[in-house]
Amino acid sequence: MKTTFIDTHCHLNFKRFHKTRGAVIQEAHNKGVGIFIVPGTDVISSQKAVEIAAAHEYIFAAVGIHPHHTYTTQHVPCSIQNDLMELEKLLVHPKVVAVGEVGLDAHAYEETKYEDYKISDEFIKAQKDYFIAQVRLAQKYKKALIIHNRETKKELLAILSAQWSTEMAYHTVFHCCEPDDELLEYAKAHNIYIGVDGDVTYGEEKAAFAKKIPLEMLVLETDAPFLLPEPLRAQKLYPNTPANIPLIAQCVADIKRISIEEVAMATTSNAKRLFSL
pTM, whole model, 2 decimals? Predict the structure, then answer.
């Protein structure tokens, strides 16, 4: 029987795949990837995710505003209401299975489209406002929640704890989870899934963290076009695509000393529960 996988986080809606999307999807299918979840990062990319999902039976969308993209709206008080209104229009679509990717991010990015990009109290407040509002949207529409966190663990867990509801258990994922024991313990206590990406192949820290994660909590992600796994990264064979999910799965299998078939079976089952597929 052919091993099948789910890529729970791939940005097929990004411009990087505009001309190659069909071929990328087909290649992934050939490698055993049967289902794709395409998250939005702003209103436009969320709309594109829904458009792609509507055109393919085995592709599903998530819609949301990434914390990085709250930067342009932090000085415009009405923008969050406008953005939420647009997301609500998309959340009623039957192919939308999650709100995401959403969360907090305090990393000082050197490469960004925002010329005056800097981390400030005002910016973090805007991120928090968006995150809280989008958690509530996931609750209102009974959708899964895809959480992005970078260098904001304390603030993010405080918001999650304040907003938590029992129906979020088994329907929330820490996307590309930072290798942090406190995050892992919180995930265990709240039945939150943990996404493992290509960076698990980069070195000991992520590999050691992945070893600690119970198999019943794991889902596989590429975060395509980012986080190209080894050995492709060393060969500079960019961009990352969903076809590389088996490389991530094999790394997890090696770390846990189990078969890739066991990884595929468990992570596929987990992903289906996460997104109610």
Answer: 0.95
